[in-house]
Write a structure and sequence with these properties.
The complex is a heterodimer of chains A (467) and B (46).
Chain A (H helix, E strand, L loop, with lengths): L1 E6 L2 E6 L5 E4 L1 H10 L4 H7 L6 H16 L22 E8 L20 E2 L2 H14 L5 E8 L6 H18 L2 E8 L6 H10 L2 E5 L4 H7 L9 H14 L5 E7 L7 H9 L4 E6 L14 H20 L5 E2 L12 H6 L7 E4 L4 E3 L13 E2 L4 E2 L1 H8 L7 H4 L4 H4 L4 H8 L7 H21 L23
Parallel strand pairs in A: 4-6, 4-12, 6-7, 7-8, 8-9, 9-10, 10-11
Antiparallel strand pairs in A: 1-2, 2-3, 4-5, 12-13, 13-14, 14-15
Helix pairs in contact in A: 1-3, 2-3, 4-5, 9-10, 10-16
Chain B lengths: L3 E5 L38
Classes of the chains: A alpha/beta (467), B little secondary structure (46).
């Protein structure tokens, strides 16, 4: 399978199974659909009004050469034999707080309580969750615990004591726990920043971008915008985490489909590791629709141009969805199953209930057990372990399948009530930023395409003035 | 080649016996929490 597309004026060709990426000229882009039919004479005739026959023949020969070399139309036969179903749990989302000091209008956790009672996780539950993780982790050495909520800083003592408990237990068990935390930055102070820097392998700081965008949706319980409340703490935390993995992460909604400006506003404030995600909601005030896709696509392209321009100018900046590791990326076993929700990855609520992931919390039909009671429903685990791109009809023939890996199970359930039916909107947004990521990859390698525009670099960002 | 420039060579075909140690990070624990991507994750073996 191949995918040929145009992004920011450049034409790229991805060979899906091998992961090979090629920059091509307009002729090859136009020729690819005909090449798939295997008839060079018909292709020459079909393209006669645009290209000389000898050029079409030369391009056809180049495609054949690529195919013979194993860089085009590869079929590696990745199937059931590549699926691993060990039935271990190695990653926890620990909802230490089902309460929040903000009332964000689009919150999938119903402003922190996940549709239930506002409560904080007792230490005994957090410790039992660590015990559960270690007991269920089989031979895995690298384990993960993400402090999440609600707002985890509202239960700070439990965060600190759980890290201490985990550090003690990991030594006994011969494991390594990678702790991470997601925070809205409201309750940050110097002591918390020092602890986070010392103990957390990754930190997510939630800010939506421009002050007016942030304040329109991320409000305090009294209804005021929270930007002024959080920005200094967020800056202090990000500064302390210089050189340490962290992301400033925003959510964009129908209210700011010009979200590239929010990413760049955050960059202008000095934040260097950035991410934005489309909102997950059915609320018509905020929900993004298929009709928004052209604008969303255009925003990612704009962001990609400015991203490359700034990086070429020496400004360090990383955007989560433009970071493609095409050399050391995870193996195909990982790519077939994706996030591992409900199988390797589960969420634990303040009362100890276990769910397939944080986005399923509150869906009682999906409760998998409880860390206090020693219950864990392996039938549900097997059900989620069976979610893979081989089993999802929409994924099998999708060119992006080895990058998105089947998408988010919770989004599929929330939008389609079918774990095997990915949310189409999420798919299309993913494909939009993936094409831009491949363009960024090409642009940063500054590869000229001989014979086109007098040798001018087709992927050169300076070719697109005005951004 | 005149019309095509390869910027990423093919990766070698993987064998089932060589993969799937499962030590890599759960993708949702990285930055998204509401989507899924492994494109920028590291293999723990590399």
């Amino acid at each position: 399978m191949i995918h040929c597309f145009t992004c920011n004026g450049a034409h790229l060709l991805l060979d899906v199974d091998s992961g090979a990426v090629h920059v091509v000229d307009a002729l090859v882009k136009d020729l690819v659909p005909h090449y798939a039919k295997g008839n060079p004479e018909a292709a020459t005739e079909a393209l006669a009004s645009s290209y000389p026959p000898d050029e079409v023949a030369a391009a056809w020969d180049e495609l054949e050469t690529l195919e013979k070399s194993g860089a085009l139309n590869t079929d590696y036969g990745y199937g059931e034999a590549y699926l691993k179903r060990p039935g271990v749990v190695k990653s926890l989302c620990l909802n230490v707080s089902h309460d929040c000091n903000l009332r964000c209008a689009y919150c999938f956790a119903s402003t922190g309580d996940f549709g239930g009672e506002r409560m904080l996780m007792p230490q005994a539950t957090a410790s039992a969750a660590i015990d559960f993780l270690i007991a269920r982790s089989g031979g895995r050495k690298q384990l993960e615990v993400d402090f999440f909520g609600g707002e985890p800083l509202m239960n700070w003592d439990v965060v600190k004591n759980t890290v201490a408990y985990g550090r003690a237990r990991e030594k006994e068990a011969g494991k390594r726990i990678r702790f991470t935390i997601t925070t809205n930055a409201v309750a940050l102070d110097d002591e918390k920043i020092d602890f986070i820097k010392r103990e957390m392998a990754n930190v997510i700081i939630s800010i939506d971008g421009r002050k007016e965008v942030h304040d329109a949706v991320r409000k305090t319980s009294s209804g005021k915008g929270s930007y002024d409340l959080i920005i200094d703490g967020a800056k202090a935390l990000a500064k302390a985490l210089t050189g340490h993995e962290h992301y400033v992460r925003g959510t964009y909604t129908a209210l700011n489909t010009d979200f590239s400006r929010d990413v760049l506003a955050l960059a202008d404030l000095g934040f260097t590791q950035l991410s934005v995600e489309p909102v997950v909601t059915r609320d018509e005030r905020f929900a993004l629709t298929i009709g928004d896709l052209p604008r969303i696509r255009s925003e990612y392209e704009r962001l990609a141009r400015e991203y490359v321009r700034r990086r070429k100018a020496g400004e360090w900046l990383s955007f989560f969805h433009f970071m493609l590791d095409l050399d050391d990326a995870p193996c195909v076993a990982k790519r077939l199953i994706g996030c591992g929700a409900g199988n390797e990855y589960v969420a634990v609520t303040p009362n100890g209930d276990i769910y397939p992931c944080h986005q399923f919390v509150g869906e009682e039909a999906f409760i998998m057990g409880n860390v206090h009671e020693g219950r864990f429903d392996e039938a549900v685990q097997r059900r989620f372990a069976g979610l893979n791109i081989l089993k999802k009809p929409a994924c099998r023939d999708c060119w992006a399948k080895y990058f998105c890996c089947g998408g988010c199970a919770a989004n599929a359930w929330n939008m389609n009530k079918d774990l095997y039916a990915p949310d189409r909107m999420s798919c299309e947004v993913f494909k939009a930023h993936l094409e831009c990521a491949l363009w960024v990859y090409a642009s940063e390698r500054s590869l000229p395409l001989p014979g086109e525009d007098g040798g001018k670099m087709q992927t050169n960002v300076e070719d697109y003035p005005g951004g | 080649m005149k019309h095509i420039r390869t910027i990423k060579e093919p990766v070698l075909r993987q064998k089932p016996s060589e993969i799937g140690c499962g030590e890599c990070q759960a993708s949702c624990q990285s930055a998204c929490k509401t989507s899924c991507t492994v494109a920028n994750q590291k293999c723990e073996k590399k």
